[in-house]
């Protein structure tokens, strides 16, 4: 089953919970029959361990929902007694044995502290023999040798996970629907640095099938959207008014022969037409167009594991790879408002100010009589203190350009 449904292992583990051992064989046979058929919405590998065949996301979801029992993808916790009874029946044991097993294997019987004292989860008993405790002790000892226990990136990542794992919304309206699709989407940084060809830095966002491509676009944070073009030594306060994102709003995604353009604003242009016409002149297969704001993920036909494209600011090109498509599970974050959910973000180190060496760089100056180097990098505070008087008048000669540090958005 794995070899057939590799990229969807998660779905099988999470959602293919059946009490009928025969049933999974039936599904395999059905899948095999379907994969022989050219038109199928059950993804099979096109290239083993690389990417799947093309399939329609909503039809794939329907295939799953038809095969599952409502209880398999329900967010309600199973009734403990009936699930125990079912387990006992499947294992062929009596109710008494089941009750005994539950007591012996219960968490309460796993103790390494005296029965009359409350447990302290941070204390590992001396000379542990349990392997998990030995490993834990090793880890604790190692951590004690470190000067800094966690940097801000780890703390932030931990916090994010803690806030979203299994999170239930405050109101029912914000509840993710049962049977909703969740997609794992990796958006890669443009390979503008040689090393990016090898390390593949990316962000991972979780999106629901009902999200539009425009919502994915808004969830992608890229420094080229935040660049400010121009020289601002006479009016540094004006710089935020010239952010690229506000001036150049066109962008497109490319999935399976279709360019999905962002047409939400009057200033948006169809930037994909150049490629489409170029391809037409050279007898490439014809490409079509659609609007990203009108296209939901469930409407897409895609290959899982296959590199697609997101292009914005004219030529800032990001590979987009959908790595998983699955049904929601009750342990997922079920608060709609928290989606698109950032699950991973690549860390980049930040450039520090040449003067204070503390704050992140905001300005780069050239031909600067006050600077120790040309060009020179400054934080906002040092830049203003050094180059302007108390009234904000420019002192001396220099050119100043806003600098956007990609590490500032970690
Ligand atoms: Zn970009
Ligand atoms: Zn500084």
Q: Per the principal axes of the C-alpha atoms, what is the gross shape?
A: flat
Mean pLDDT: 85
Uncertain regions spanning at least 5 consecutive residues: 1-38
The helix tally amounts to 15
How helical, in percent, are the residues? 25-40%
Number of domains: 4
Strand content: 15-25%
The total of beta strands comes to 15
- The CATH architecture of the largest domain is Roll
Distance between the ends? 39 Å
The CATH topology of the largest domain: Structural Genomics Hypothetical 15.5 Kd Protein In mrcA-pckA Intergenic Region, Chain A
Main location: nucleus
Organism: Gymnodraco acuticeps
Keywords: DNA-binding, Nucleus, Transcription, Transcription regulation
InterPro entries: snRNA-activating_su3
Task: Offer a few descriptive terms.
binds zinc ion, single chain, alpha+beta, 4 domains, Structural Genomics Hypothetical 15.5 Kd Protein In mrcA-pckA Intergenic Region, Chain A, 15 helices, 8-stranded mixed beta sheet, snRNA-activating_su3, 17% strand, flat, 410 residues, disordered N terminus
Describe what this molecule looks like in 3D.
It is built from 15 helices and 15 strands. The two termini are about 40 Å apart. It is an alpha+beta fold. Mean pLDDT is about 85; it is low at about 1-40. The protein has helices spanning about 1-5, 10-15, 25-35, 55-65, 70-75, 80-90, 95-105, 130-145, 150-165, 195-200, 215-220, 225, 245, 275-280, 380-385; strands at about 45, 50, 55, 180-190, 200-210, 250-255, 260, 290, 300, 305-310, 315-325, 340-345, 365, 375-380, 400. It folds into four domains: about 1-70, no CATH class; about 75-110, no CATH class; about 155-340, Structural Genomics Hypothetical 15.5 Kd Protein In mrcA-pckA Intergenic Region, Chain A (Roll), CATH 3.10.290; about 365-410. Strands 8-7-6-10-11-4-5-12 form an eight-stranded mixed sheet. The structure holds zinc ion (2 copies). The site of one zinc ion (ZN) has 8 residues, from helix 15.
């Amino acid at each position: 089953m794995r070899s057939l449904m590799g990229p969807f292992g998660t779905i099988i583990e999470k959602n293919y919970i059946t009490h009928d051992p025969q049933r999974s064989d039936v599904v395999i046979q059905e899948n095999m029959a379907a994969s022989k058929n050219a038109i199928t919405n059950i993804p099979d590998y096109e290239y083993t361990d690389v990417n799947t065949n093309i399939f329609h996301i909503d039809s794939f979801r329907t295939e799953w929902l038809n095969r599952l029992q409502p209880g398999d993808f329900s967010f309600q916790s199973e009734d403990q007694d009936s699930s125990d009874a079912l387990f006992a029946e499947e294992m062929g044991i009596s109710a008494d044995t089941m009750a005994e097993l539950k007591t012996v294997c219960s968490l309460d019987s796993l103790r390494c502290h005296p029965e009359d004292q409350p447990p302290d989860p941070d204390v590992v008993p001396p000379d542990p023999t349990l392997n998990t405790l030995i490993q834990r002790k090793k880890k604790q000892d190692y951590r004690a040798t470190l000067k800094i226990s966690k940097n801000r990136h780890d703390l932030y990542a931990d916090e994010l996970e803690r806030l979203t794992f299994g999170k239930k919304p405050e109101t029912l309206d914000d509840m993710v629907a049962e049977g909703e699709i969740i997609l794992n989407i990796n958006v890669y940084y443009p390979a503008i640095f040689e090393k990016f060809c090898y390390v593949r830095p990316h962000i991972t966002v979780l999106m629901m099938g009902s999200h539009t491509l425009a919502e994915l676009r808004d969830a992608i944070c890229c420094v080229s959207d935040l660049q400010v073009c121009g020289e601002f030594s006479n009016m540094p306060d004006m710089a935020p008014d010239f952010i690229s994102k506000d001036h150049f709003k066109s962008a497109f995604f490319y999935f399976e022969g279709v360019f999905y353009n962002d047409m939400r604003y009057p200033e948006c242009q169809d930037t994909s037409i150049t490629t489409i016409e170029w391809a037409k002149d050279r007898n490439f297969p014809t490409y079509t167009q659609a609007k990203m704001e009108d296209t939901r993920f469930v409407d897409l036909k895609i290959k899982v594991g296959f590199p697609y494209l997101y292009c914005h600011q004219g030529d800032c090109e990001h590979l987009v790879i959908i790595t998983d498509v699955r049904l929601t599970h009750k342990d997922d974050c079920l608060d709609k408002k928290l989606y698109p959910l950032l699950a991973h973000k690549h860390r980049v180190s930040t450039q520090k100010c040449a003067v204070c060496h503390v704050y992140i760089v905001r300005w780069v100056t050239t031909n600067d009589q006050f600077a120790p180097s040309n060009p020179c990098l400054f934080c906002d505070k040092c830049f203003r203190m050094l180059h302007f008087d108390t009234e904000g008048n420019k002192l001396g000669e220099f050119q100043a350009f806003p600098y956007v540090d990609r590490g500032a958005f970690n």
